[in-house]
Automatic annotation (TrEMBL):
Residues 1-21 form the signal peptide. InterPro entries: Alkaline_phosphatase_core_sf, Phosphoesterase. It comes from Dichotomopilus funicola. This is Phosphoesterase family-domain-containing protein. PANTHER family: ACID PHOSPHATASE PHOA, NON-SPECIFIC PHOSPHOLIPASE C4-RELATED. Residues 358-388 are annotated as: Disordered. The keyword Transport does not apply. Keywords: Hydrolase, Signal.
Length: 388
């Protein structure tokens, strides 16, 4: 009986993606990363908000952080895959098993991870939306704000699927000091501001973050990135607020600003730099690393993209998931030859899958050039040979 109980407990811990003290993989600058996603507001409006002003005292405000495109969904997909595959809408989409994500990079190094979605009806739920626990008629949990369920490489694996769970499970893990090392969090459509106001979402965030920012909230150095998926205006350049918080922020940097140019791909390159991860061979390579991390690990690749002035990241470029059939393209092959911010090449398993494709052309060159659907389409080049 005792064995059975222990066995079941062990299984429950795996299912929830919890970490035990000896299971923590130390990073160079932080040991845990939590990103929390709010919806659809412009930098100009959020940066003067009172709740954000109070939170800013605890962290670093990134003043030049831009989303990838509009509307919401492609930005979420991009944040874990380094690519949004031409997506320009919020409807149901799915990507095949051979498209790899951050999850593969983390698991390769034994780093625990989870996605927490407020009001998700059950662990690993793959439906379009929930039944409306907020009383808003089925608009509290939405699939378009959960990138993980779009990737077959995640949903075809039961253990991975079970790592997508509710905010209640997060709160239990937090109380038990067993929060996984990488955490992606989406509040429901009220708390993230989608169906409410700017002020409603920033007040919610302020309250939600207080216990996470308290002294000794976590035993390990924890970096929290509060971000928006995209701006509200489409006529301006998709400029959003991202705030870096948590015990991993050096005291001297609290209340400061960082004027480096970032996009959602910077989360991927920063994680690679911190944990010495392999890369995905997509736009993760060449994305600027959060400066306080880059400085500490000695990463010197940060720079403005060469096409900075021409970028219009309000329009999606052509690709597989575009709703205009005339601009659909196959899934681009990753570039197998790039070295990323983790100092390593592409994950060997990704190289093994894609090197079979002899005709492959790739738009990824590691330059940090930002692509869009207007003046900066991806430029495909043939890249011969295998990994570096
Ligand atoms: C989700 O929406 C898509 C269309 O956007 C539809 O084909 C699919 O059946 C829906 N799934 C569920 C579980 O309702
Ligand atoms: C919430 O947003 C969705 C999608 O834009 C919309 O269809 C729905 O009516 C909104 N619900 C409320 C309560 O505002
Ligand atoms: C980007 O393109 C959209 C659609 O063509 C246009 O409405 C918007 O003004 C452009 N924005 C910028 C910053 O050029
Ligand atoms: C990736 O998977 C898709 C869908 O199964 C398939 O069409 C494509 O050929 C695959 N590409 C490679 C390089 O395996």
């Amino acid at each position: 009986m005792q064995r059975l109980v222990i066995g079941l407990l062990g299984w429950a811990c795996i299912a929830l993606g919890l970490v035990s003290a000896q299971g923590v993989v130390p990073g160079k600058v932080f040991d845990r990363f939590i990103t929390i996603w709010l919806e659809n507001r412009d930098y100009a409006d959020v940066s003067i908000d009172n709740s954000i002003a109070d939170l800013k005292r605890h962290g670093i405000l990134l003043t030049r952080y831009y989303a990838q495109t509009h509307p919401s969904q492609p930005n979420y997909l991009a944040a874990i895959a380094g690519e949004y595959f031409g997506l320009n809408h919020d409807d149901w989409v799915r990507l095949p098993e051979n498209v790899t994500t951050l999850v593969d990079l983390l698991e390769d190094k034994g780093i625990s991870w989870a996605g927490f979605f407020e009001d998700i009806p059950s662990p690993g739920y793959m439906g379009n939306h929930s039944d409306g626990s907020t009383g808003t008629d089925g608009w509290d949990y939405v699939r378009k704000h959960n990138p993980f369920v779009t990737y077959d490489s995640i949903t075809n694996n039961g253990e991975r699927l079970l790592r997508l769970d509710s905010f209640n499970v997060f709160q239990r893990a937090f109380a038990a000091k067993e929060v996984p090392q990488y955490v992606f969090m989406t509040p429901n459509m009220m708390n993230d501001g989608h169906n409410t106001t700017l002020d409603f979402a920033t007040k919610w965030s302020h309250k939600f973050l207080q216990p996470l920012l308290a002294d000794k909230a976590f035993d390990e150095r924890t970096l929290i990135a509060l971000t928006y998926d995209e701006s509200e205006s489409y006529d301006k350049p998709n400029h959003i607020v991202t705030l870096l918080l948590g015990s991993a922020i050096p005291p001297a940097l609290k209340g400061t600003k960082d004027n480096t140019l970032y996009t959602h791909y910077s989360m991927l390159s920063t994680l690679q730099a911190n944990w010495g991860l392999h890369n995905l061979g997509r736009y993760d390579v060449g994305a600027n690393v959060f400066k306080f991390v880059a400085d500490r690990v000695g990463y010197t690749g940060n720079k403005d993209p060469e096409n900075l002035l021409a970028i219009n990241n309000s329009v999606s470029y052509p690709g597989l998931l575009n709703d205009d059939p005339s601009v659909r393209l196959p899934i681009p092959a990753p570039n197998l030859k790039l070295v990323g911010a983790g100092g390593l090449g592409i994950l060997p398993a990704i190289a093994a899958t894609w090197s079979k494709d002899e005709t492959r052309q790739t738009p990824y060159d590691g330059s940090g050039r930002v692509c869009d659907g207007e003046r900066n389409p991806p430029i495909y080049n043939k890249v011969a040979g295998g990994p570096p």
